[in-house]
Amino acid sequence: MMRIAISRFRLALPFLIGLVFGVAVVSSSAQAAEPSAAGLWQKVEDDKTVGWFLFVDHDGVFEGIIVKTFPRPGDDPNEICAKCTDDRKNAPLLGISFIRDMKREGLKYDGGNVLNPRDGNIYKAKMTVSPDGQTLILRGFLGISLFGKDETWSRLPDTSMAQVDPGIIAKYLPAQAAAAKPPAAMKKGAVPAPAPAR
Q1: Element (H, E) at 175
Q2: Would you state the pLDDT for residue 77?
Q3: Is the pTM value of this prediction over 0.70?
Q4: d(Cα 101, Cα 137) in Å, to the nearest integer?
Q5: CA-CA-CA-CA torsion for 175, 176, 182, 187, nearest 10 degrees?
Q6: Cα dihedral sign, 71-73-74-78
């Protein structure tokens, strides 16, 4: 009896290993298929675009950067974070890291914080990306999430990245900036090589 049970177990062992491996692969590919907050987002208020924000993934911890502003008449287009009290003190709003330490768990992001660059206050924050990856809800709050405010942003197409300042791309996405760099310009006075004869 014992020999029969052991031989059946030996026959079933490869199947069980394959089943466990298959479940692990399906589980990891399902998580990989979920949309990420990484990319370019737009905030609109009263039918007017307020800003563009870039989210960068640092191995599962996300950072949000202001990459384009749309100043209203009378606003300073070169506004700085004069009231910030940390490493962002007097940093230009354009290119400032205003969302930090967002840790991803599927479509939800938690444990982070958001800076209000107008008054220098830093709030706890969490985010959720919609299952289709086209909407991001940011919630900033004091103490507990109940005492907070939601903002809903829309994803911008990848082609919009061409409108972002190249200096910001170079700082936060150096690999992408290097790939987009045109070939080295010819030195002044260099004569181009003649075209091959036909």
Answers
A1: helix 174-180
A2: 87
A3: yes
A4: 16
A5: -30
A6: positive
